[in-house]
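User: Structure tokens for this complex, please. No commentary.
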Amino acid sequence: LGTLKRPSEIIAEETGTSVAALSGPNHAEEIARDMPSATVVACTDEAVARRLQAALISDLFRVYTSTDIVGVEFCGAAKNPIALAVGMSDGLGFGDNTRATLITRSLVELGRVGAQLGGNTATFVGLAGIGDVIATCTSRHSRNRLAGELLAKGESPAQVEAKVGQVVEGIPTAYALHDMAAAFGIDLPVTENVYQVLAEGKSPAECVRSLMGREPTHEVSGD
Amino acid sequence: LGTLKRPSEIIAEETGTSVAALSGPNHAEEIARDMPSATVVACTDEAVARRLQAALISDLFRVYTSTDIVGVEFCGAAKNPIALAVGMSDGLGFGDNTRATLITRSLVELGRVGAQLGGNTATFVGLAGIGDVIATCTSRHSRNRLAGELLAKGESPAQVEAKVGQVVEGIPTAYALHDMAAAFGIDLPVTENVYQVLAEGKSPAECVRSLMGREPTHEVSGD
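Assistant:
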């Protein structure tokens, strides 16, 4: 946090080796129980990605290759503040419409940051992007989603982390996305509202009013 | 069914008027209960879309404009066979990973057909596309998802329709997508497996083996 570096960048700097990243809708509990899953393995060297694909693929674990390690790593981190937002919506008693809207508009936001970082738009609509976002945001087991629910009930970020009892990655990641949005001059309405809840004590109910009250716009070009 | 025409085409032919289409993650039950929702209103005449936006927008219903009526209408129909596939996965006892994978890869398929029809890719990753797919596929109230669950339990399409007691749109739509895939020469692995369950009595468990056993590939270019 502060460097805005991805894990693979830090590992490559420290070790001098090239690094691949694997990400997707991959709850370990379900893979261990032989439920069919799919994932993306990304490496700038496509031959390495193909070797990892061959090593990992099975009848129950479908592995796709990608050369977009930037997009794959970024999505794996940036999905967690979305899960916080969806958890807040659940905590406020909202339903499928609100959740689906938050996920969809958040993906538009991630795509904006990802493009600035040099990621490929196709990754954001792929398994490591929308796939992992769906698995995380609709799972009862997601601790980030649960943390959002507790925030909506009025608990502070510190109380939430104590209650969840595990790292809530979405909290530091929301701070990192706030820094990135400022650095790139990009508007990220959903993730910025998550940041304001965490850093400024804004209430989730007030976030709803902010998000719904913005100027009417066009779907593709607008916010 | 058979003409492969969209409703707006038929209405325009019969009435001679221009038509707009509204679609998104919009369960009516939730809108009626004042839960925040968002939608897309599409018309080839953007001025008409903007007038409809102004007429419909409220603090709890956010309306985005679009000129891509083809994509909006196509997604509204094509999401239902995806919900059948997700329901089958649920019926087989699979979890979040399998569901998220089916949704993500199905969107790739829809994008292929939609591009042939002249739809805009952005619509497929927007509220009328991925947004509506998420709301439909993760809702316990979706009758198409429920129908898929019953198919996985071994019921026939006729038994499923009788038990659901309402129109299961995904069934005729799977036949229409099968015709479109043949007409355009496009490979649609997920929706084609849904068709085979409905039309040829293939078992959902066998579909899993077909889908997971295909050749390893690249995420963006491949199947």
